[in-house]
Amino acid sequence: MSKxxxxxxxxxxxxxxxxxALGREGFTVVVTGRSQSKVDTSVKKLRDNGIDAxxxxxxxTSQHSISAAANFIAHSVGHVDVLVNNAGILPEATxxxxxxxxxxxxxxxxxxxxxxxxxxxxxxxxxxxxxQAGRIVNVTTRMGSLAEQADPTSPYYSMVVPAYQASxxxxxxxxxxxxxxxxxxxxxxxxxxxxxxxxxxxxxxRDQATTTAEQAALVVxxxxxxxxxxxxxxxxTSMGPSAGSSPASPPLRNSQLRWxxxxxxxxxRNDPLCRRRHLGHPRVSSDPPSTRHMVETTKPMNAR
Length: 304
Hints:
- By secondary structure, the protein is of the alpha/beta class.
- The chain is built from 9 helices and 9 strands.
- β1 (4-7), α1 (13-24) and β2 (28-33) form a beta-alpha-beta unit.
């Protein structure tokens, strides 16, 4: 019986790349998204590449949709081994008018980035408990770290996207809480920061990010396939192909995030997301090439 991986928001970007990476590792991949047509297209692409996959619609902001998807998947395969909470939004990147943050933008952000993962976890937890090696992977960001936000020397210090940062801080807290609640089970819960990735999260990601979705998916794959008795409640960070060789760079400011469409900084490889200098002394993986760009930290989330 093959292992089953469910990935939210997996019709594009990091989610789609993670589905392919897990599929190539032998998982049966369950593609989910809000559009059935996009789900069908993604499933066909995976199957054409020799990956065992099927899909269903799943809107993480709808409890009815979550329940329906969980029931469909459970009846289709009978168990779930990996749950990747990948779906996320950053509407502040394009929102205008509010002095700090629009209340509706904040509400939408928390509904997708925090309440959604909580409800998805609750719905799939009975099936994860049936697994011999259940894994929950929460896709988050170090932009949510309170320590980074308060540290003037941090590259994240000048970033002010309150709803998004608060939502990811909350998701990091969820990771810790779950690790405690599931301490006596075989389920390992991890937060991962894929980095600044070429996705549609903000208007500048496609133009300015140098990490591909395929490279970012390696951090998700590593967390999803952690060996038995791995530490739970920890974080993992993707360094990307040029990691460790880039000099320090100035912080990415809000104006760069929102309006520098099509523009590049002098050296885009220096993008501040998830750089080594703020990770202490992580262990650089010596695994095969498919995971050699992966850096794992065993630092507890509350020390981030």
